[in-house]
Design brief:
Length: 44
């Protein structure tokens, strides 16, 4: 692999994994509130 390919691979990995970590941190700080959501329909 060339140096340019390795640099681009690292940038892509940081973007993907950084987004995943940011999403996890965001959900940990601001969890979804299920109380405001309507109840699911009941099947008869």
């Amino acid at each position: 692999m060339t140096t340019a390919a390795i640099v681009m691979m690292i940038i892509a990995m940081v973007t993907v994994w950084g987004g995943l970590v940011a999403g996890i941190v965001n959900l940990a700080r601001h969890p979804e509130e299920s109380e405001t959501e309507p109840a699911p329909p009941v099947e008869l």
